[in-house]
TrEMBL record:
The lineage of its organism: Eukaryota, Metazoa, Chordata, Craniata, Vertebrata. This is 5-taurinomethyluridine-[tRNA] synthase subunit GTPB3, mitochondrial. One of its GO terms (cellular component) is mitochondrion. The keyword ATP-binding does not apply. InterPro entries: G_TrmE, GTP-bd, GTP-bd_TrmE_N, GTPase_MnmE, MnmE_dom2, MnmE_helical, P-loop_NTPase, Small_GTP-bd. Belongs to the TRAFAC class TrmE-Era-EngA-EngB-Septin-like GTPase superfamily. TrmE GTPase family. It comes from the Eukaryota. It comes from Salarias fasciatus (Jewelled blenny). GTPase component of the GTPBP3-MTO1 complex that catalyzes the 5-taurinomethyluridine (taum(5)U) modification at the 34th wobble position (U34) of mitochondrial tRNAs (mt-tRNAs), which plays a role in mt-tRNA decoding and mitochondrial translation. Taum(5)U formation on mammalian mt-tRNA requires the presence of both GTPBP3-mediated GTPase activity and MTO1 catalytic activity.
């Protein structure tokens, strides 16, 4: 039986992964740099305690000369309170903790030292200058400690990426994902694939080399092919994750769109609780895309307010409308804002009007049931009778996305709308699909069509 082309192609394409991911947790020889590097690791700005890290062969020398340790080095990984002095003038620069991490039991796998000093600018500058005067030492380049850790086999590339994500994590969910990746979950999965592929490769090579001598048992080739097909299925499944990780890293794109004056900018300001966008009764106020980052239920959300969609002769406004449409095309979730005071409530026809709004906002290929919420703004302008009429007309209607009536002015209905957006589970797993499904079920569950208007 012939092994399929695909089988062979992933076979050979993925073999180098094993090299990238191999973490024997031993330093491969010849990879260590001769330079000793140092840097402020705790970030810039005044703070109580700052951490200065040193890594490389001269780390012990720097520790001895700056912490007044003439003979013995401190016990490994034990904090010692010392006077930190200039190695040449012997002037005391600060009093702080020193820690000694002998190779290979350090972050970089090299001899490393940490100075925990006071976080004032002058103290930090003095200590860094003193370190720079020790021979063989130089300031670290950006990411150099991590590069050394990678070269020493302390971290694989997925862990390095996880570490970067952890440092930049702004929300709870980002922190959790980064920590999982940093603890090697992804690396372990890829290593498992790599091991299985190598085993298959070995079997195929053995078959090619020795099959004519009949030293190879029957069915080796078939089993290798089956294993590779299984791996192919696993990899395709892994890649088909709706860009979950990427969304968690960069944020879910939520776009506010609709007619001019519907209250889109008011909604953005209400959600981010600051006047991020200009609000005015003049139609066509917003021209550019106004973005703000939000943390919704621990998940990062990038909320964008856009120009009102209408035909215009004004070139600037036309460009704003083009950008708005582009954003809606890229959105994970579109909040279609409609001024409900302008809906034809008395003679019926509200549903048809809302469908018209959806058609004018959403890309033609997008089904209005998915990735979209209808926000009926300005309910404060409706009379009690009009609200009931609207409710009657919308109840039991199919083919519309979930409907959230709110008022950005009085905040009526806002709590329920936020509950829908805050529902953690909506955003965490299969974000968009679940967003719709759960939104819809929440709406049904609480008979959201009653909208709680009377309660609020
Ligand atoms: N009564 C009432 N007025 C509102 C509400 N929300 C917004 N408005 C008013 O509606 C007008 C338009 O609001 P915006 O938020 O600027 O509307 P927009 O959709 O961003 O408008 P463009 O940027 O021109 O497309 C302003 O005068 C707001 O004060 C609301 O819930 N109730
Ligand atoms: Mg606006």
């Amino acid at each position: 039986m012939l092994i399929s082309d695909f089988t062979f192609s992933i076979f050979f394409r993925l073999i180098p992964i094993s090299r990238v991911l191999s973490t024997g947790h031993e330093a491969p020889s010849g990879l260590f740099d001769a330079d000793t590097i140092f840097a402020l690791s705790s970030g810039h700005g005044r703070c109580g305690v700052a951490v200065v890290r040193i890594s490389g062969p001269a780390a012990a020398t720097a520790l001895r000369s700056m912490a007044g340790l003439t003979c013995h080095l401190p016990p490994p990984r034990t904090a010692l309170l010392r006077r930190i002095t200039d190695p040449h003038s012997k002037e005391v620069l600060d009093r702080g903790l020193v820690l000694w991490f002998p190779a290979p039991h350090s972050f970089t796998g090299e001899d490393s030292v940490e100075f925990h000093i006071h976080g004032g600018t002058a103290v930090i500058t003095a200590v860094l200058q003193a370190l720079g005067s020790v021979s063989g030492m130089r300031p670290a380049e950006a990411g150099e400690f991590t590069r050394r850790a990678f070269q020493a086999g302390k971290l694989d590339l997925t862990e390095v990426e996880g570490l970067g994500d952890l440092i930049h994590a702004e929300t709870e969910a980002q922190r959790r994902q980064a920590l999982r990746q940093m603890s090697g979950d992804l690396g372990r999965l890829y290593q498992d694939w790599s091991r299985r592929l190598k085993r298959c490769l070995a079997h195929v090579e053995a078959f090619i080399d020795f099959s004519e001598d009949e030293l190879i048992e029957d069915g080796v080739l078939n089993r290798a092919d089956l294993s590779v097909q299984e791996l192919q299925a696993e990899m395709l499944q892994h890649l088909k994750d709706e860009r979950r990780g990427e969304r968690l890293r960069s944020g879910i794109q939520v776009v506010i769109a609709g007619d001019t004056n519907a209250g889109k900018s008011s909604l953005l300001n209400t959600l981010c609780q600051r006047p991020a966008a200009i609000v005015s009764p003049i139609a066509g106020t917003t021209r550019d895309v106004v973005e703000t980052a939000l943390d919704i239920g621990g998940f990062p959300v990038l909320l964008s307010d856009t120009a009102g969609l209408r035909d215009s002769r004004d070139v600037v406004e036309r460009e704003g409308v083009r950008r708005a449409r582009e954003r809606v095309e890229q959105a994970d979730l579109t909040l279609v804002v409609v001024d409900c005071a302008h809906l034809p409530l008395d003679g019926g026809g509200a549903v048809a009007s809302l469908q018209g709004h959806l058609r004018s906002v959403l890309p033609s290929q997008q089904h209005p049931d998915t990735g979209c919420l209808l926000v009926l703004n300005k309910v404060d302008l409706l009379s009690e009778t009009q609200r009931w009429k609207l409710k009657e007309e919308l109840s039991g209607v199919y083919g519309l996305p979930p409907v959230c009536p709110i008022s950005c002015q009085t905040h009526q209905g806002l709590k329920d709308f936020l509950t829908v957006l805050h529902s953690r589970h909506m955003i965490c797993y299969y974000i968009i699909l679940l967003l719709y499904v759960l939104t819809y079920s929440v709406l049904n569950l609480h008979d959201f069509c009653t909208w709680n208007i009377s309660k609020s």
